[in-house]
Amino acid sequence: MRAHHVALTCLAVLATQAGADEALDAKALYEARCGGCHALDADRTGPHHAGVYGRRAGSVAGFAYSPALAGSRIVWNEVTLERWLRDPEALIPGQRMNVRVSDPAERRAIIGYLRAAR
Amino acid sequence: MTTLLVPARRSFLSSSGKATLSVAAIALLAGRADLASAAAGDAARDVDILNVALGLEHEAINAYQLGATSGLLQKPVLDVAVLFQSHHKSHRDALITTIEKMGGKPVAEKSINDYAKALNAASLTSQADVLNLAARLEMGATNAYLGVIPAFKDHNLAQIAGRLAADETMHWTALTSALGRPLPTKALSFGA
Questions:
Q1: Is the ipTM here above 0.90?
Q2: Which residues form the domain of A75?
Q3: Max CA-CA distance within chain B?
Q4: Given CB atoms, is A106 within the 8 Å cutoff of chain B?
Q5: Smallest CA–CA separation between B152 and chain A, in Å?
Q6: Does B44-178 carry CATH code 1.20.1260.10?
Q7: Beta-carbon separation of B51 and A96 below 8 A
């Protein structure tokens, strides 16, 4: 029980440190965590991200979205992106991204980067 | 080639694959259509994840193809690029087989011109440019595989994602040292 608690505390500290360091370089964080599937200007495995902030979900013409994302009525903003990156399936059941960002500081940094990506 | 994944896939199909089917079958027999469709839904979701992975592998194969035929890579580096491409082809083949066995439809490869455009291959003018692109894609693929592990309903598939991530990490490490870049100073720099 106690050991458990200590381990959890250590993990939390680790996660916070990682977040603090990487928040300094949101672009590197975006490239490492999202760049396998997304680019700002090109549709790849995932849709392009330039202009995603304020865009209706599932609205990039020609991208083959899941029916769930295409049919959702969500607009991407601070709140919806936070929920999406925390757990995409909880926000839009049936989505096909399935990638989570578990650290809140990293989510904030990435959302800030998306917001600036016009 | 498929030897990388075949043992795990076999055990998946022979143990949990059948188990999934029989859970669904029993649920149907017991009049629990809700349970039956939940089991089928789990498999469909896992297939979706595998198909996104397959898209990544198609892209990696084409990126190495663009690099290998660019005339920018010198001999020992060229051989390594071709070796890494062969790994991605094995990943692709294993993913296609698994998706088909699970009753899914593997996502199709696009044309190499589509990949060239999406990856901005026209901007590559040196060996270092090509290696940089490859390192970026391998890092992204490593994190993509690590990122989807918690979403798999089937633990055998999650393990396969871990093995794929290990291959991509090995590629990234070799590319990083070929570029003369330092290794990460911090532990746990991947995933999360």
A1: no
A2: 25-116
A3: 65
A4: yes
A5: 9
A6: yes
A7: yes
